[in-house]
Structure of Methyl-accepting chemotaxis protein:
Amino acid sequence: MSIRQKLGLGIVLPLLVLAALLMGTVQLANRMMDGMNAMYQGEVVQLKELKQIADLYAVNIIDAANKTNAGGMTAAEARQGMLAARRQTQEIWRSYRTYPMSEQERRLADTVEHLFPPADAEVDRLLPLLETSAPGTLSSQILALYGKVDPLSTAVSELVDYQLSSAEHSMERLNAMKGSMLGTLIGVGVVASVLLVLVGLWVGSSVSVPLGHMGRVLEAMRRELDLSQDVPVLRSDEMGRLGMALNGVTQQFRAMIGEISGMAEQLSLAAGQLSTIATESRSQMTEQQHETEQSAAAMNQMSATVSEVAHSSSNAADAATRADQSARRGQSVVRDAMRGSEALAEQIRGTAGMITQLSQDSRDISSVMDVIRGIAEQTNLLALNAAIEAARAGDQGRGFAVVADEVRTLAQRTQNSTSEIAQTIDKLQQGASQAAESMQQGLEQVDRTTDIVRQCGTSLEESVGTVDLISEMNTHIATAAEEQSKVAEEISRNVSNISHIAGTTSASADTLMGRSRELENLAAGLKAKVGQFRC
């Protein structure tokens, strides 16, 4: 369980206990109220009704009779009051008998109920006498009424006593119930208080114990630089995760210190190697300074040789320029020949195109002649059909037959002329085809001649390009030789600078040796500081 959940339990549990106590108190109060209501409905109301019955007989009936006998009340008033009292008594008694009763209370009620008829009978005998008797003459009848009413009052009093005893028992039950509920509430309160104390101790220990472990580990880190201790993790709550995080930090510190120690060792070794390298560099710089002096002398000799090469390259460039001029003149002649050949080829192509167009036009004429031939054949057929129809018509179609015969004759002549024209066009097409073939052969010969001339031109162009390249290369060689001469001079100066730098580098190597020794001392101090940590 997490610390948050434990703290929440410490808050929720008292609230639950308080709610339970409140519910118990409310339940006790409800039960007390139910008991009091039951006592009121079962005893107090019944006592009230019994008291009303006793008062109605003692006051309303007997008192009315006494007042009438004494002359203080008229007979009519007494009769009305006594009848109303008896009627009210009967209603109250019927209401009383509807309540649930114990066996003893039912026996007492039955006794009272058996005493009502004699009392009512005595009242009935007294009522007529009230109107006929003079005041002061009813004492014996009133005494007889007392003889019937007193047993009824005594029985009602026994019922009242029973109700009082029942009410006393009800109060005793309520008091016992109150004591029991109070004892239960006190017990629940004591158990809840003990439970709250235990939960508080449990939550406090779940926080204080891990904090104590972490405090001891951190104090060891602070005083003794001891990183070898880990916090014991006994729970998976926030304190457990905090302990695991602290253990992870110490593990990372141990790993980092181990790496730093290894780096310090490597730094010490590197400083020693750097010192050795500085010593070797100083020796090599001295040797290099001697070699650069020798290189400077060699560069002076090379500069003189480069000057001679530049002069020879300039002469070769002049010769290449003259060869280039001759090649360019030959190239101009070849270009003129190529242009003439190409013009002749274009003329032959134009003539071949016209012959081809002539052959195409001849084929078009043949197509037209085929159409004319078809029309003549169709016309001949139509004329033949017209002659047949004219023959069928007899004398009426004779003139039409003559015309049809002339049309057929004309169509036959058209077919014959068309055949002659077709033969002439076939000859013309054959001649055009032969001319086209001859022109094609001439064109191919011109193309071959043009290709040969073009090849000659290409060769001359390549020769001109080669001469140009030679001339350009000679120029470049001369330029390069001049630049090389300048570079040689620059190299000579740089070699002198290198010699000077080598001297400076030698002095820097001495300084580097001193810094390397200081670095070795720093590495040793770092190892000593890291060695103070206990991992």
